[in-house]
Amino acid sequence: MKPENKLLALILLGNSILFSVAYFALAKYFPIYIVYLAVGAVLTVIFVVYNRGFVGKGLTPDRMSDSMTLEEKQKFIDDCAARMHRSRWMITVIFPIILAFCLDMMYLFLLPMLEGMFQ
Questions:
Q1: DSSP letters of 11-28?
Q2: pTM, whole model, 2 decimals?
Q3: Which residue of 6, 29, 76, 77 sits 20 to 30 Å from the alpha carbon of 53, by its own alpha carbon?
Q4: Domain boundaries, given as residue ranges, for the chain
Q5: What span, in angstroms and rounded, lies between the C-alpha atoms of 9 and 7?
Q6: Average pLDDT over residues 24-49
Q7: How far is residue 13's CA from residue 107's CA, in Å, rounded to a whole number?
């Protein structure tokens, strides 16, 4: 694994722990899920829009419009790859928010069901 990817993995793990602990700690005082939902939704929309809806994923010059020159096609493909690389940091925030919601759903629904099974 590349050192850059190791760093992103550590940031992802740290953010996951931090966001989950903060979610459950702050949920007792005010509805933190609204903040997490808003931040997660906004970041997800920004991520998709910034990456042009992932239109450049797996794109080759022969699948592009004939009205573009070969240089324009290559520039577009390189720009899509660069955008995806520059926006990877957003994943380190989006995934921990999703994980916090998943843990909350397990706490709300799965835990009572398991407690009921063993009574």
A1: HHHHHHHHHHHHHHHHTT
A2: 0.82
A3: 6
A4: 3-113
A5: 5
A6: 94
A7: 20
